Amino acid sequence: MELTLRIDQLVFAYGSRWLFEGYSAQAGAGVTWVQGANGSGKSTLLRLLAGALVPRHGSFELAGCRYAAGDRVAPLAWRQQAFWCLSDPPPTPWLTIAECIGFVGGTYPGLDPERVGEQVDALGLEKALAAPLREASLGQQRKTLLALALALPVKLLLLDEPFNALDVASARHLSDTITARAAQGGQVILLTSHVEPHVPVRDTWALD
Amino acid sequence: MLIELLRSLKEALPILAGVAGPLFVASFALLAWAGVPPMLAVTLSWRGGLALWTAQAVLGAWPLWALRGRLLPEAWCVQLRCLPLRARALAWADVVVSAAVLAPLAALYLLSVAVFAWQRPAWWLQAMPMALVSLAASWIASCLLGAAALAWQRRGVVVRAHRAMRARSPEALLAQRPGQFVALLWWPGWRGALTPGFASLIAGIVVAMGLALAWTLGPWPVVPGAAWALMFSVLLIALTERLQRAMEQHLAALAPWLAALPAATGWRWRARALVGVPMLLAGMVAVLLVVATRPWRVWPLAAFALGLVATPLALNAVPTTNREGHVALWAVCAGLLTAFGSELWN
Predict the structure, then answer these.
(1) Chain A / chain B CB contacts < 8 angstroms
(2) Which domain holds residue A113?
(3) Does the pTM exceed 0.95?
């Protein structure tokens, strides 16, 4: 059976500002480009899917696991199969890059240190591993979570503006890896971007 | 920072005026004592005098040490390293900032001198003018120690960079799996991500234990036991409240991100429990001292111990954003702990 992410009747608002009023969509394995103007709810949709925000109504479903409005937090099984690579730096500036990777990666089952090491090398992070995040550059801060995003065996990858602040070589590595993952077909990749990403896009969600 | 402090004082004023007004007025008399240790030091033997003078100078510099992270944030330290400034100019700037921060202490010392000049006690007249020289030297020493604290803060950036260069291999670094308590609560407390940090908290707990010692042993009969109990209670409540505020801000920043990780939520409860640690630690020492030093009665001691446990629980139950509620809790808890503490030997 093909891997499919289903969003059903999603309702969400920040106070009285409604962003989603019964939004439904589905995405198969591969890259889905989430596009829209500033403030249209791209990042919010990823936050909702990650479990960082709680929907007012509606549900999400992926590989037999369901997360619905009314759940106090996203179920553990849901969080174990999803990884959210936020557009901001990790909110733990007191940790070194290696400690952040170790802490976040350690919460996921099936973390392969060798795969993490490969991604760290490919993104050029190996010399900065001992640096505290607060002293690292914005690009290095973003690569910290991207290294995990590309190494973890999750079914749902939520990438919020992943190409922002990356150097040319790292952006190319990210494109190549996402392209390879999309070809393998075992992962739903939701990617927000203001410009068209240089990866094979299977579907596009346009938010108003 | 000053505006923040004034705003919180303004909100707390009605409650403070109602509950602790008379106490406030009485406490003004204590201001005259601020300059006594350095002036008294010249009348003591050189060892005792030097110890007293040094202790006051170090205590005076403490605000600079406590505020060094806010006076010189890490990002500024990095920027300062890039500017074409001479080491002497930076050192002079540290001294000026230190003097500005300690200007209220200078005013307090002047007030103290004015009160003693008005009262003219015999020991003070005999110690003049060396007493004044000693007082001025104490303030200057505090300024220099404060400047050293700021220089230490600037140097920290370099030390951490060197440490990072001496780091282990990438494989060893990536093999680390810090647990939730260590990564989310322990390291932030030691690495300057929480205000107050754990070093300041430990200093506060040690001072509270010192107050408990002075209270139970009673080395200065002129100071009543209730005054020690009040200082002990207020210090511990202040530490608990500040830690709670820091934890609330810390958790609010982390919560959305952590909600998305497949991590257990036990760290939230541990963070809450951590808020009560200063009071429980210092309180336990106080109770042990009471039991060890004098004959004691069960019920007053039980009430005091219960108060020590209940205070952090009560403070935790009210978010620090409710300022009026917190100030009222401060007053009630401090009053109850002082009352229970005063009754221990009655």
Answers:
(1) 98
(2) 4-207
(3) no
| Domain definitions of chain B by residue range | 30-168, 179-346
Distance from CA of A58 to the nearest CA of B (A): 18
Q: Do A98 and B260 count as a contact with CB atoms less than 8 A apart?
A: no
The answer to whether the beta carbons of residues B216 and B283 sit under 8 Å apart is: no
Using CA coordinates, name the residue in chain B closest to A131.
Answer: B164
Q: Is B84 in CB contact (< 8 Å) with chain A?
A: no
Model confidence pLDDT, tens digit, residues B67-105 = 888 888 877 887 777 788 888 888 999 999 999 999 999
CATH number for position A131 = 3.40.50.300
- In the β-sheet with A201-207, what is the strand arrangement from edge to edge? A82-85, A156-160, A188-192, A30-36, A201-207
**Residue A206, φ and ψ in degrees, nearest 5:** -100, 120
- Does A165 reach chain B within 8 Å, measured CB to CB? no
Domain count, chain A: 1
A44/A197 Cα distance (integer angstroms) = 19
pLDDT in tens, B188-247: 998 888 888 888 899 899 989 988 888 888 766 767 777 888 888 889 999 999 999 999
Residue B160 has pLDDT above 80, yes or no: no
